[in-house]
């Protein structure tokens, strides 16, 4: 597939089912190489997610308070900052990743939080938008975190989520979309976008290539939390 073997091995390892302490140690150890590895993968999720959120989000961006969940080293924050977002908070379960994120200087606040085990250490209805990019997948963050993301989002606020569509993630993606649909039918949020993207990142094996083109595909979802404010006429 043209990728260095070490990069392939690390990407495969992160999606493999493993105990939580082992997974967190892996991310701590991966932090120093993470951005180099995802560049080799041609990983487009941060760019695609930030562009989609910026398009949906009413101006002015600079006044909005955003939460970057599973923020990693800050790739999503860089893309959001380029689009005018300035008030960025982040959470991640890896202290090593948070250290890298802190070094960017893009976040006003960063907190350690293990998603799926701990509630977000943040106030209810506090954020104008919440992103969770790259971590909704097999062996990573469970889809049961969705209500917690909604809790910290303001009514009328936006949620930007992504997942992959490669073969080994299809079971997780199906479960995620069931959970997304249940929340929509309950009136918790409304779907604004579900955009399939063919060239999401390079595949690590031929079997994982979604269309046999050497890449996997993925999806960007944008939801708006209900109740959505009504615009004043006139």
UniProtKB/TrEMBL annotation:
<feature type="domain" description="Methyltransferase type 11">
    <location>
        <begin position="67"/>
        <end position="160"/>
    </location>
</feature>
<dbReference type="InterPro" id="IPR013216">
    <property type="entry name" value="Methyltransf_11"/>
</dbReference>
<dbReference type="Pfam" id="PF08241">
    <property type="entry name" value="Methyltransf_11"/>
</dbReference>
<protein>
    <submittedName>
        <fullName>MET27 protein</fullName>
    </submittedName>
</protein>
<dbReference type="GO" id="GO:0008757">
    <property type="term" value="F:S-adenosylmethionine-dependent methyltransferase activity"/>
</dbReference>
<dbReference type="InterPro" id="IPR029063">
    <property type="entry name" value="SAM-dependent_MTases_sf"/>
</dbReference>
């Amino acid at each position: 597939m043209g990728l260095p073997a070490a990069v392939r091995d690390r990407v495969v390892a992160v999606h493999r089912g493993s105990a939580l302490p082992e997974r967190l140690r892996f991310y701590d150890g991966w932090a120093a190489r993470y951005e180099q590895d995802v560049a080799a993968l041609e990983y487009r999720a941060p760019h695609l997610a930030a562009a989609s959120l910026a398009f949906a989000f009413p101006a002015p961006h600079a006044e909005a308070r955003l939460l970057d969940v599973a923020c990693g080293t800050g790739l999503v924050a860089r893309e959001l900052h380029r689009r005018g977002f300035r008030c960025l908070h982040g959470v991640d379960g890896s202290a090593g990743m948070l250290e890298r994120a802190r070094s960017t200087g893009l976040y006003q606040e960063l907190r350690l939080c293990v998603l799926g085990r701990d509630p977000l250490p943040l106030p209810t209805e506090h954020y104008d938008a919440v992103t969770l990019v790259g971590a909704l997948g097999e062996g990573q963050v469970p889809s049961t975190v969705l209500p917690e993301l909604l809790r910290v989002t303001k009514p009328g606020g936006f949620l930007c989520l992504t997942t992959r569509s490669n073969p080994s993630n299809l079971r997780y993606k199906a479960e995620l979309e069931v959970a997304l649909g249940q929340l929509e039918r309950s009136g918790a949020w409304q779907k604004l976008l579900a955009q399939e993207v063919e060239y999401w990142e390079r595949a690590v094996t031929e079997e994982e290539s979604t269309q046999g083109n050497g890449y996997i595909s993925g999806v960007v979802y944008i939801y708006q939390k209900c109740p959505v404010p009504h615009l004043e006429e006139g």
